[in-house]
């Protein structure tokens, strides 16, 4: 009878995991993410020049960085 009980428990666990996997995806998530990424790309403005003392072909300057002169080298 112990084996029978164990088998029952194993089945329960298996079913639980199986159901977890089969849950449907949240709708409308992917599109929003890609849109966000595109927006981020649009916000960055590429300018060529110097960053500190380095000569750089293209720097990525984010909107907020213009004032501070903190520039990210691409």
Automatic annotation (TrEMBL):
- What is this protein called in UniProt? Uncharacterized protein
Q: Where is this region: Disordered?
A: 21-52
Which domain of life does the protein's organism represent? Eukaryota
Annotated source species: Theobroma cacao (Cacao)
Basic residues bias spans:
21-45
